[in-house]
Specification:
5 helices, 5-stranded antiparallel β-sheet, 165 residues, single chain, Thrombin, subunit H, alpha+beta, Methane Monooxygenase Hydroxylase, Chain G, domain 1
Length: 165
């Protein structure tokens, strides 16, 4: 049995399914063994069952980034990304799936901070839009603020970064 990383009510992020809240801890029998699961209520109200013993390996993490933390990270010094579009896309995808709480924010910062808008591929622009939406949703949940307020603040900072490159 693995120790419980999360308790009911904890807000979490799953790299494949997105944001949710731990609703329950359950135990089910499978092949003669009892397996413990987190029941995660997702934004679309579906329940995702995540084996507790594999939760960390699957990338389930507590959401921790409020708007202030996100904006502070976006304002920090950007790191370079691969110039090749395919390699850059792979790097951005890997960071977006990372269990590290700041990985997505750092990837947004690096993409915007190191790229002129005309150098961004259509895939970069789609990724950026999706990443900013996810950051906004996380900030809104953590800070208990309106999603549109979080979107506006993040978009203003992204626009400021773009204009400074």
């Amino acid at each position: 049995m693995s120790p419980h990383l999360f308790q009911p009510g904890d807000r979490v992020f799953h790299p494949t399914y997105g944001l949710g809240v731990i609703e329950a801890l359950t135990t089910r029998g499978k092949a003669g063994q009892k397996i413990e699961y987190y029941g995660v209520r997702l934004a679309d109200t579906a329940i995702l069952s995540v084996p507790i013993a594999r939760a960390e390996a699957l990338g389930l993490r507590r959401i921790a980034n409020g708007l202030t933390a996100i904006l502070t990270c976006l304002r920090s010094r950007a790191q370079s990304l691969p110039r090749d579009g395919r390699q850059r896309a792979m790097e951005l995808k890997a960071r977006s799936l990372s269990p590290q709480p700041d990985a997505l924010t750092q990837a947004v910062r690096d993409l915007v901070g190191c790229s002129r808008p005309q150098d961004m591929t259509p895939a970069d622009k789609r990724w950026l839009g999706s990443a900013c939406e996810r950051l906004s949703a996380e900030a809104a949940l953590v800070d208990a603020i309106d999603l549109n307020e979080a979107r506006r603040a993040i978009q203003l900072e992204v626009d400021r970064l773009r204009s400074s490159t």
